[in-house]
Batch of 4 targets.
Target 1
Amino acid sequence: MTRQERQRLRTGLMFISPWIVGFLVLNLYPFLSSAYLSFHDYAVLSKPVFIGTENYSDMLADELFWKSIWNTIYFAAISIPLNLIIALFLAILLNFDLPGKKIFRTIYFLPSLVPLVCLGVLWRWLLNGQLGLVNTVLRPITDTANALFGSDVAPPNWLVDPEFAKLGLIFASAWGVGNAVVIFLAGLQDVPRTLYEAADLDGCNFWQKTWHVTLPIISPVIYFNGIMSLIMSFQVFAVPYVMTDGQEGPGRSLLFTATYIFFNAFENWRMGYACAIGLILFLIILALTLLATKVSERHIYYAGK
Amino acid sequence: MSKRFSAISFRVPVILVALLVLLSGCGENPREDGRVVIQYWDKWTGSEHQAMQDLVDDFNASQNEIYVEFLSISFISRKLMLAAAGGNPPDLAGLWSMNVPIFAANGALTQLDDLAASHDIHESDYLPAIWSELTEFDRLWGLPSTPGATGLHWNKDLFREAGLDPEKPPRTIAELEAFNEHITRFDDDGDIEVLGHLPQEPGWWLPNWAYWFGGDVWNRKDAITVESDASIAALEWMASYPERFGADELLRFRQASGNFASAENPFFNGRIAMVHQGPWMHNFIEKFAPKSFDWGVAPFPSTDPDRYGVAIVETDVIVIPRGAKHPQEAFKFLSWLQRPENLEKLCAKQLKFSPLVETSESFYENHPNPKIKIYRELAESPYASGRSRLTNIMDFNRDMVNAFDQVALQNLTPEEAAAAVQRRQGKLFDQSYRRWLKVRDARLEDKTQP
Amino acid sequence: MTAKTAQRVQTVCIYLMLIAGAIVFISPFAWMVSTSLKPLKETMAMPPQWLPSDLQWENYPQAIDEMGEFWRYTWNTLYLCLMTVIGTVISSTLAAYGFSRIEWPGRDKTFMLVLATMMIPFPIIMVPIFLVFRDLGWIGSFKPLWVPTFFAGAFNIFLLRQFMLTLPKELSESARIDGASELQICFRIILPLAKPAIIVVALFQFMATWNDFLGPLIYLTNQQDFTLSLGLQSYQSQSGGTSWHYLMAASTLVILPVIALFFFAQRYFIEGIATTGGKG
């Protein structure tokens, strides 16, 4: 290293020192101490007691842990693709550059500004089985269907019905998709016009252009949005907490892994167990991110490559 | 222009921060009169909060050494856990007595035996069912504020409408269910218009229904017994509801019911005729039910007509968290509150009975709750007992509530639901019991503040 | 069918879809505001009523009253917003400068580490972080909620760095030749130019603090210290499932400032969000 390099290294480190401190104290140390505590029985007010891998073997046998993992994966598996499709669809519509586009963009974006607690309170009301907006809209539809086909369907009771509670939550979070719309729209606007013109010359229709030109070019943006919503949906906590008054929903249908960590740490006095669950959740997120990266590598188009 | 703007825009936040830091520092100042400030958190809101506030005011006026700052905290068991774990608990906190074991076992409470003895507070002063709620591991962890005992509350008008004698509540579960059939009626859409009874309304004591079937969900010592006959019978009782009234119909009925403290409470607006509740009902009925609301209280019937008077006795209990800054001063307030006249004043204002054995004549004469004596008798019933004293009570209760839910939704049979709880809770209980035994002696000996 | 009519049909179709989408996205707001102005009876009416028969403006003061310490919560939230915005702006400007304007060995590898920390969601490490703040004696105070922002979060560094990389290198080099120190370059030259990006970071941080729920939930124990989000949740769990008109009024009040902020700074919001994804 030359003197100049050393000098630059010193200045660089000085500038990033706030981050370094933050990284050590708020990321690395908690992470390591989480790993340490996960091998202990720790009730906060007494010393941690080493119990080997007992927390992990408990976890494997704990139905509630598996339930929370299943709920989280269920939520993520529907919510991520649904949100991506809705966002992409709306972004494509907005990209037609019609007059009034900005107004629509604003309307689609506004819900993503709503604080999570408000979102939970509001959707709890919208999804109320008797009095909510959603069922007020659905009821004429099911009534017509019943009249036509002699069937007997009624709009679901959403958040009090174990079968529908997670779907209710999924719809509520799809409402806040505006962020992704804006990101997709920016990606779409970066697609060079010349490519579309070339496709036009080849006689491609709109769907062919979307499939063969638009999607490949914005694939990095899809990947980015996908990863972001993956990380977000695996830590879902606030909205279900609000919707269930800090409980777990009917038939535990809204018990997510983050909720279960919270219960164990701050209600059952099982900090060590909570840490162990946290680490497993982290490994799941890590594995899925790597998997998504691996899969998408083959399909992502990077300009210039 | 832009340069000046940026100069200002940098200065403004700096000044604001300085201001905010100054202002936020203000709250921490000790009182000018030199009194020790005691922080006291309790769960109440509204008139119940006001009742305690009045006593706190009395105490603050009665002497000039201690000043009690009384705060209303929602979801207090969770908040107290966070504060205790975070090393910043209040000096006094009002828990429910079912929370005592978990807080005590985890070393979050101060042992009060010595303090109580030195302040002339004795077990014999209190109703036995109440005192046992304050103790755990043979140690005293808190003192009562307002106790409660549960019973059957029935709507006499709905009895009349169904052609039943409004003055004759059911004496057995079988009778209750016969009444239930009479009272329940459906509207033209097939929705439940009026329901006789539902074990899940309000469902605050779901985990303990086994008491009314002659048993319990644990052996009161060292094992969980959710698969015992009584516990299964309680779940079978639950299972009979969707069979008779329809699982979907019950679900819709419950969703259309409002919050407890509201006019949409199904008992107050005449949609359910019989509920399992406590002494506070008088207060809430006055507030939320129609003026003409006609109701009665009696023991909740059990399967056996000879065991009439099964009830759950609980008490709001004031504890001194371990790590409290002023435990001595906190106990001074606590022992002041335990004087019969003060407890009677508080309990009367909250429409409850006194936790003490001796009650003054005037207490019942002037008591605003005309039915108070029934609750007091329930608290003294030989069949009265508290909730399960488990050190993972919240987790256990959630499992039990879930078991009842699953049965109500017909997803699980009573046996399957009980087996699932037994499997999980049995293991958790063994584990925590085993670990508790290891630390028990050290923890009970440790009376110091951390 | 001529090309022109085909074009027109297409336009109409797109508008129809846009409008349908807009109705879906806007109607929850409409329902919220409509409920907030209804008398209790009409919120419980079957079938539900679309509009209040008579606007109940007094629901708003009533909701503020019912929530307990609404103004206190607002003040707490604003205090936290201000502190976190200041912390974030200062610390992430410095860090982003270090990651973009100075070339030091190992810089880009370290930056990968910054990005990697975005992968650790808060719930995973909330227990040990809680314990760190416990050891500092900060539980029950505001400090755990604002002090960390003085240590530069990954996302904000990333955003600012992206922007600073687009500024020409020559700017710094000529200043260096003139003998300016790095700190001077950072604050005199880069900071003013990076203002749009800094505003974006400040806005995002403001939103994040306004929004935060889990942090206040575990760090704040005293009801008087609650933020609006926490206060609203605690109000709804106390009155849950009944006074929907008050709850909706309270929600409207919590959302309104954010919406207002958005309309003031729309450009920054949209551009800021667009850049987050563009170069991922």
Target 2
Amino acid sequence: MATSTQRASQLTLADLKGKVDPDWCPGCGDFGVLAAVQKALVELQIAPHTVVTISGIGCSSNFPGYVNTYGMHTLHGRALAVATGLKLANHDLTVLVTGGDGDGFGIGGNHFVHSMRRNVDLLYIVMDNQIYGLTTGQTSPTSRVGMKTKSMPFGSVEAPINPISLALAAGATFVARGFSGEQKHLTELIKQGIKHPGFSFLDVFSPCVTYNHDNTYQWFRPRVKKLEDDSDYDSSDWKAAIEKSLLWGEEIPIGKFFERTDVPTLHGAEPVLDEGPLVHRDLKVAPDIARSFIEELM
Amino acid sequence: MKQTFAIGIGGAAGQGVATPGDIFAKIFSRRGLNLNAYNAYQSIIRGGHTFLTIRTGPEKVTNMGDRIDLLIPLNQDSMDRHLKLLTSGAACIYNAETIKPASAADGVQLCPLPVSELADIARNKVAQNTLAIGAGLHMMGIGFQALEDVLKEQFKKKGDAVVAENVSVARAGYDYAAAHFTAFPHPLPKTGNRYAILSGNIAMAMGGAAAGVKFYCAYPMSPSTGVLHWMAAHARKAGIMVRQVEDEIGVINMAIGAAHAGVRAMCATSGGGFALMSEGLGMSAMIETPVVVINCQRAGPSTGVPTKTEQGDLWQMLGAAFGDYPRLIAAPLDIGDCFKVIPEMFNLVDRFQCPGLLLCDLLLSEGRLSVNPEDLDFNPTIDRGELITAEGDGEAAASGTNGDYKRYRITESGISPRAVPGVPGHVHTVATDEHEEDGVLISDEFTNPIKRRAMMEKRMRKVAGIEAAVSPPALRGSRDADVTLIGWGSTKGVIEEACEILNEQGISANQLQIRWIVPLHGEAILKILNNCRHTIIVENNYSGQFARYLRSETSFVPNGYIRKYDGEPFMPHHIVDAVKAQLAGDTELSVPMHEIMV
């Protein structure tokens, strides 16, 4: 998504520290995502008061409280809908949406799909730990078949969602995957996602050290392969991205799967916004226009 | 008794019931006549039965009335359903070649049109409709020019040939009536007034534009969709961002997101969609971001009767979202009020930073009324409350740098100055979890019984302010009447007319119509009702939802109830007959039968 033109003077990591410290379990993957977001904002030098971080509900959705930007901790699954309204009312703001796999792909699945086809200009980071953590360990939409949890003690029989393929199919214009254990790489993806004009989807493997004993740091480390290391990979090729998105198992690609910048953003496609953000507009309808509305009825 | 004249046009959906209705409406309003139109229809795009009632007259017309003066059935089914309800003095114009009348009451004039002799029906499929309009107009004593002008406008886009064809067919009908039918005894007069004709949905949409709404979103749902249609069609001129969203959950959350950024945001739906919005309303209350939600009630529960009216969502509105929180609920009294109430509601929700709900219904949403254009005020007072949209606004300067600003500062009024994202020096996070004054969240970890209590009390202190900001209802009519009729929202017009009829018949009646559901002003209502002789609550639902609410707030129990839950609105005689039965001691609960089979 596009960055604000307002820049802070010498923004440092300390400026982005939230009022309270995270209450995540020690070792939680979400710490890495928080650090990467803060680094990305510092590297891009975006003034915190021009950024709004919006989340739903869940462990990772506590995120806005830990970063010193404007924040909204909304309802379970609804962050993208709230973010869309906010962005359309003031498109000068940089909007980050953060949440988990249950929040985004389960209860919020409908908004996820529609936000992508609308190409709302924001960065959506999903801290994907393939489990429900805050409710103490139930199967999530990305839990693998066979995974045993409190809600499916004999193993899940449902196929998981493939967030990357889904995002590509739904029309997301920037689709990437990161790993909380790959800080530098993740920070780079966040920066790219913030700068991308349109809907940027970033799925991040963010291991749950308490409830998911299958998809651990140790499990991911040997499997993740950076797309950026493959010089033949062309991230403007949608079909190639779909193919890569299907890879899972011994080799799991991370990095930027796909990006296109030729699709207008939602706010860019609406002539109503040509005169600038709605929030700065006069509330009154011009008298001649008001008269014309009434004349139509006479 | 005041002069009114009602036309009933019946046919199948798709047969063109709307066009003659629109043409008559335009002719009446340009004569300076008042008008009320109500379309009884079904959830079907082609077929079924649709019955449009247009009632007009030189004085105020607030409802569909009790009688049809002119029936225009466009098919046999409509003839069979409605002819038998006509009474002496009425007339029925119909296509003599396709429709056969059954027996009619004495004094009803049957006016058969030899359609194929008067028009080329191979070329003009709706010739029977146009002929009937022409014939009807003559019988009402209105000159042909009025019709010619409207037809020219109506068909302008289709070219001169189509205009000429329609004018000549209408003329043929007009002339045929002059030669063969007896005109109505009281020609419709002309006055110097000019009216706008609009539906409640258009009124609410325009009221939104007048209030400065900059963001409107919705999911299509009858009978609220008209608000979306007006907003979408006028968005660019009015500078409003209009979105159609994937579901009503998305709608309320998107609207709150926009409102949180600092614009006035509104959305509309019906009962089912409103149910989905419930959790979102709680968020609006908890993060103290104002939003206005319209519920155009239809007959429930569940999908219910999508095209029929009811006042059955009162308790859903009262109980929407869990937990205690301040809210406002208004039930507009008529279509003009649908416009007026929106800027009022926005000023209140901006001041008190809470959700504002409008309890409308199909009767107002899709009904049409003539409104004095002066009453459509696009320059209303705008009060955005304690809003900080730029550095240095209000108390902003004093609140200093990041971290010192307290979004939820505990105040005597319960209202905390609200900074919107983008304002320097006020960075904060809002949370649907309970939070501290500065917004720090995460439910139980950062709160405790003392903090929770303080924050609950802060929010709930706004209730007293809201109560003081809204005026209590007043009694209409003579203080010592025999009977007091209590209604709420859209029943205002029909109860008013029932009172007039009762007064004419020697039973003095007055009316207490409730516009504000929350705040209710229970004490003021009690003061009024305790001095009334015989009280009856009139409402369009099964269980007496308002009666139960009034009782829960005031312990007041009326003498009787008049309820209707068949999907159709009250007609004046339903209320008049029920009042007489109740005053005679026959019953305490009347459920009038809707005689018209629509």
Target 3
Amino acid sequence: MKPAPFAYAAPRSVDEAAALLAEHGGEARLLAGGQSLVPMLNFRLLEPALLIDINRIAGLDGIAEVAGGLRLGALVRHRALETSPLIAHRFPIVAAAMAEVAHLAIRNRGTIGGSLAHADPAAELPLLALLLEAKITAVSAKGRRVIAAADFFTAALTTALAPDEILTEIELPDLPAGSGWGFAELARRAGDFALAAVGAVIAEAGGVCRIARIAMAGVGSTPLRAPAAEALLQGGALDPGAIAAAARAAAAAAQPAEDLHASAAYRRHLVEVLTRRALSAAVARARKAAP
Amino acid sequence: MSGKRRVAVTVNGTRHEREIEPRLLLGDFLRSELDLTGTHFGCEHGICGACTVILNGDSVRACLVFAVQADGGEVLTVEGLGSVEALHPLQQAFHEHHGLQCGYCTPGMLMTALDLIRKHGRLTEAAVRAGISGNLCRCTGYQNIVAAICAAAEAMQSEEPAGDA
């Protein structure tokens, strides 16, 4: 057998899971979809004393409309995000980006909560959480708190979650009416982690950009926003020159590393190209959606 | 919480009960406990797709799911697909199109293709190529696998109503 021995618990409620975490904390690991955790167990990169399997907790896999947004349970699978009519209607960028995540068998198991808690800096869902300004709920035996996505990703594979906390739900606040979106990524093979990925949200009114958001992945130790690039666009005309300038600013804000897949300079180049594509698509969709 | 756990898993229509360690992967459970060695392990970390099986209606990597997680569930493996006397349309198509050489990746290819066809019905060649991009074959160059899956998708659509495989 590949993984080191561990004790196993399959709690039926969040309270039960939180109580187990309160007791075992750093010795325990939560198992959601397992598509990143189990490889690490197979390689014995992790040897937790206790695996807490949250898959049998009822009610964590819902996608529901709430006042001001959409609420997603931590166990919503990538495949559900890809195929949910509610997601397609309210956050089509999420459905579109899911097609880029790994492969069908992985998307059948992987979860949104697991992806956010794992916090791979090249993964799509952390990028989307940052772009869509998601609010992430964490529960422990001591209570619950809501963490803004901007405060959630603290370093590669590291989040603001405490060892005794379980991520239970994600709220995506509604985008302003008339918003458009764009998403672009490049990977060397279908399903690989992105060398770089960029998401954009744009809203325009009266020929002027009202809202511009740009987030990128694969080019830093966490997903990143590009505030200088966003500021360049806000209040101005969304013409090709402005988009090109914003793309250059986003590339300047990237913090790419060099590895065997790509040089840092190439990743920075990709950010510029992908930002231009994502922004152009977002502007086109915003104009189509404009009231 | 610690020690062995009793699980009951229905595999290819037969219910099996075993006492197992929680760390036993579903693929090892199938191979070592049930002697169903049609499911192959390649990379054992979710990259190669050789161990793909159907769990509760969805394709999964049997190296990335623990057998305890399948407790109470239903698994379909390549052994449950067809028999030598009566090949499944997918197996028949792989046979006719020479979609395998060494055969190591074949069970994973078949189970992946089954999930693709069940979820999408008729498939374009591009959709098949994208759909099996998580299954590595080092012999065939994929050409004949793609041809086999396209042919099987057609054959299965004419036999069964969409989505009812």
Target 4
Amino acid sequence: MSRLPFELMLALRYLRPKRTSVSFITLISVAGVMLGVAVLIIVIAVMSGFDRELRDRIVSFNAHLRIEPARGTLQDYDRLSAVVATNALVRGVSPYIIGQVLVKTEPDDPNVSPRVVAPLMRGVDPRHEAAVSRLPASIVAGKFDLGGYSLLVGRQFAQSMGLRVGDHLAVYSVRAFEQWEASRKQGSEEAPLAGDYTVAGIFDLGMQDYDARFVLTSLVNAQDFLGLDESDSVHGLLVSLHDPEMAPRAQRELGASLGSGFVITTWLEENSEILEVLAVEKYMMFYLLFFITIVAAFGICSALITFVVQKTREIGALKALGASGGQVLCVFLGQSLAVGTVGVLAGLGLGLVAVAYRNEFLRLMRRVTGIELFPADIYHFYGIPAWLHAGDIVLICGGSLLICVVVGGLIPAWSAARLKPAEALRHE
Amino acid sequence: MSDSAPTPAPLLRATGVHKAYHIGRRSIEVLRGVDFTVTAGDFVALRGASGAGKSTLLQLLAGLDTPSAGEIVFAGQRLAGFSARELTRFRNEKIGLVFQAYHLLPELDALENVTLPARIARMPVGVAERRGRELLDRVGLGHRVDHRPSELSGGEQQRVAIARALMKEPALVLADEPTGNLDSHTGEGIIELLCALQGERKATLLIATHDHRVAARAPRILDLVDGVIADHAG
């Protein structure tokens, strides 16, 4: 004989009809919950994956904090870097210089017209760059070599300009044009001189903003090119942290230790708009997709209401034997709990499997339909990103179970508990 | 000083019990002032034609429904004074019910059905199981403990229902037409069993029946006619 409390024993027995092991209605109810939970897990995991991937790409170039002088350029950056590096939250510090330049290609073929664009030039210190960005690890052609007059360009920049490693570029600084303009006003026609640079490597950070708009050179070249006359002056410092989420705290601590005269910006502030959009999208998905579970819970509710009507005389008998309204309530809540639990567990399993094999599924769909459902050239992802966050899983499973019990079970259980025994026994 | 034995206190007393049902604007008065007492250990038959209100009266006595007027007192306590929780406990502990339609739970086997009142009262499973097996043995179904109601005949189902009614050793067993769904031979067996159990356990037994032969087995008969009781010693 079952050792379970009689309410749970009866709830589980009610899920099994006389001839088969599981009732068809129970299976449909379980399938509804399972699909709701699985879809929630898959969609939220993919959205979290996108979110994480995007965050990774954002900080792959601009680190977690940017320290700039409130006015002018940053002098004696080595000393300041050493102060910043003493903070326990800080993983690495590297100086940078940034400014707009004019770049013209120098095609070997005289029949090909040169192309001209105005990207941002960033001067970096190759010794420290790996500590603050993923640039050294993102080289897809050539190498991370900033010696001499070398440039690194983004993949999309290289594609749009028709560049390959080893190609030459003429680079003009804004300062050269300003000098040219000044000389013209003085009656002289001194043409601006271009720097002759060689493409040493092509990087791919997976962010169009970075891969299409930036060229990189050494700190010395950038100082020279962008008019920073002193060798120890830069535009600012990029700071990476052990934990990116600690950026606001690091901002406060560094603000206190460096004193006024510096502007410290976190990556969260710089990208607040897109991060908020992603967060809102994820919450919206949560709300919208939870409706699948709510619809599934209504399925449970409808099945249970029918069941309560069918079992009215038995409910009367139970009450005649001394079962309280609360005990009857528990029997039917137990049914919705059992259906919900099995549905949630099945949905969790299905969701986890679907997330694990998402890319295999994508390939299968491509083979079957011939349609690329997730074009890499649009999304710049070579597979669907996904990230299973424990908090999301707990929220999905716990929330779904709660919805099943409350929405699916409470109304029928309450109506069963309120049945008057004499009337229930007379029920035809 | 009188030499007669003192009158024992009644286990059950109904005084001026009325019950009316309202269907739309119509009111149907089923019981019109029922008065009677039952002493502990009595075996009483409540006789009346179909529709006379026997089942209604039994439901009132079991605390399954409330009278429109009058009062029912059990062991000195007014049922109307019970809270919902006390009434639930009263039904579980003091009353054993046997229905014409058995009302066994089809999803449970014979033993689980018999032990249900004990499980409702949170009796330890082992104790309930032992007692349930004893009772099923006593009603002649010791070999059918794991059979579901659909696998039992009508007579066997009623035996299971009788065992269930006795599970909590109630002070009062109320049987509502216990042979009503059975053929005469099987019904005779059920009445024999009820009589034997009443004798063995000194339980108070009130059987509602329209069958004169069944009623004749009781030492005392209450006739329910036109909503009132006429008392006859058997």
